[in-house]
Request: fold
Amino acid sequence: MTFFKIRAVQTRAIVSFVGACGLAGVASGVLSQSANAASVLEGAFTEEQAVRGQTLYYQHCLQCHGETMAGVDKAPALAGPQFGSTWNNAPLAALVERIQTMPPDKPASLTREQSVDILTYILWYNGLPLGEQELDTSTEVLARMTFQTPAP
Reply:
């Protein structure tokens, strides 16, 4: 092989390597973006979803948790400092699982979608902002997102 042929092979190898690294960087960026769910502090649910949740809350939760979500009798608060300190940094999946154990007289009577809708109303009531897309109901997404108390 002549010097020029060797040099051409080396150049193609370098170009291929650099191109592959660039594509790998782009691909890993896309993968990491899709692997990171939106933050509840940046708006992870829509107004429509929170309104559906409000309707469900009034049908299924109001009697025990009250209109202001302060809790009635032994039912815990779903808003405010006590709720925030209990659930801060907890995965949203844990909150959905808890909602699905309710109401106490009819556990598991709500669908996962209904439980997520109720959760969005609770998030909104706790001062978290609305977003452009509905909160995903998949366990994978909800497990990656955590409840965070909004800054005052």
About this structure: Helices lie at 3-35, 47-60, 62-65, 81-87, 92-99, 112-125, 139-144. Residues 127 and 152 are 9 Å apart (CA to CA). Residues 1-36 form one domain.
